[in-house]
Specification:
10 Kd Chaperonin, Protein Cpn10, Chain O, globular, 7-stranded antiparallel β-sheet, mainly beta, two-stranded antiparallel sheet
């Protein structure tokens, strides 16, 4: 059985099946005129860094490995997944299929 991979931090979180744990990245945006648009006023996907991945999902009794890995930067929907707080840090637990894109 494959084991979950956790990041190099002290986090003790091991997502199950095809779930990933994301650390949201702070994003600010300034328009050309110098106006600041807070994240609460924007309806757009959010960026984050993968800090832990599960072993993968099962299809027809076979394990399908994860495409994402720890350290990948991704874009996910603003209201996707479940927010959790662990050791004072806010994290998002989300299914791999709900990740919209991987950044390079």
């Amino acid at each position: 059985m494959a084991t979950a991979t956790a990041s190099k931090t002290k986090l003790k979180i091991f997502p199950l099946a095809d779930r990933v744990v994301i650390r949201p990245l702070e994003e600010t945006e300034t328009m050309k005129g110098g106006l600041y648009i807070p994240d609460t006023a924007k309806e757009k996907p959010i960026q984050g860094e993968i800090v832990a991945v599960g072993p993968g999902r099962r299809e027809k009794n076979e394990l399908v490995p994860m495409e994402l890995k720890v350290g990948d930067r991704v874009i996910y929907g603003k209201y996707s997944g479940s927010q959790v707080e662990l050791d004072g840090e806010e994290l998002i637990v989300i299914k791999e299929a709900d990740v919209l894109a991987k950044l390079s």
